[in-house]
Amino acid sequence: MTAPRQSIPATTSAEYTADVDPMDMLADPPAALARLRAQSPVVYVPAMRSWWVTGHAEVLDALSRPGEFGSRMLDHITYLSGRNVLVDDGEHHRRYRRAMAPTLKPAAIGRHTARIIAPVVAEAIAALRDRGAADLVADFWEPVAVRCFAGLLGANDLGEATLRRWYHSLALGAANFMHDEGTAEQARATSEEIDATLLPRMRELEEHPDNGLVAHLLAMAAGATLEERAADILPTIKILIGAGEQEPGHAGSSVLAGILTAPDVRSRLLNDPDDGLGDAIEEGLRWCPPVQAISRYTAVDTTLGGVSIAADQWVNLSLQGANHDPAVFGADAAHFRPDRDLTGRFAPLAFGGGLHMCAGASFGRAVIRAGLLGLLRELPDLALDPARPWSFTGFGFRAPGALWSTWRVV
Ligand code: HEM
User: Fold this and answer.
1) What separation in Å is there between the alpha carbon of 285 and the centre of ligand 1?
2) What pLDDT score was predicted for residue 13?
3) Homologous superfamily of domain range 13-406
């Protein structure tokens, strides 16, 4: 473990400015973020018109001060067409969270595992078993995550292809930091398609409410007409679609990549998949947080890590940077090591923290766990295919691009 950093004296932002080419950040995000942190865990990047916070202590500190580091709609994600759970810190946010709680609270997860997750995983494994080889990102984790979320949303009939297209388009829009007009237009069109598809379902649900996620959101929605109530909750449903369909698949892929590349862990888990699986999942989430950074705006003139930041500044809290901070996770932070102590002050931040901490963390962990158990137990001699090497891809959202793997057909 390296020595704690010395605190940085209060200063003006000009002294903490990083001359970074955004293309370098896109090309190798972990390396670029490590370079930023080496300069200062809180720096301004003019080329991206935003601050970047890459230290674990500094990210935690910002998350604990929502009055100073508040949430706000970013100008590149206005396609969501309205206020949503992520960009409100007040009463609306509390209402959205209360409405999601009956479906997403930890106590509800056992029911979802039995009714939704286990059958989805069993079906996906059955489709793979006789193949002997597949890309486990495209052929397992993505469909599993999408189908599990569809079950939660009560939207199985929409079909996997539509739901996958929706989340891919929403995710590209959310990560459109470079303001590409084509990407923005596609995200807007997807957003409108979701509105048009879900509105008639909401009419039906208001007449015959079930006990599901959308019905709970509708019950607390503000507005005199169905159209107004739908407009109140549709942006939040799009956040749920983007997060719920994408992140468990990304995280499951990263954890699996870690397990299959770490020789001692791999053999232990293959012999006894239950032993240490929880630790491997937490370490995988630390190693490659699927959501790489979360955005905040300074509501007032403030300081972070001793660095002065004026009001009204866009501040990116890098979860990747925080989770690889050598001051907390040691010199081998870039490596997957499930015996790492991730408790107390060493807790990683893949699910964010504070007011907006992930609402679907328990559901996400349950999907990852069930998927890993299925793969490790049911596909004998599962191994990555050395002929088709894998790598992490993505800047805003990150995961292995593909995981070509083989197993023994019995
Ligand atoms: C491994 C899987 C997941 C990861 C790593 C993840 C990560 C995150 C992160 C980092 C945030 C905080 C964003 C911020 O503070 O700006 C967040 C928020 C959120 N996530 Fe997740 N997520 C995952 C799965 C899910 C799932 C499965 C759902 C829904 C079923 C979900 C729903 C949400 C919602 C609604 C929020 C907004 C919470 C709020 O603003 O109060 N997430 N997630």
Assistant:
1) 13
2) 61
3) Cytochrome P450 (1.10.630.10)
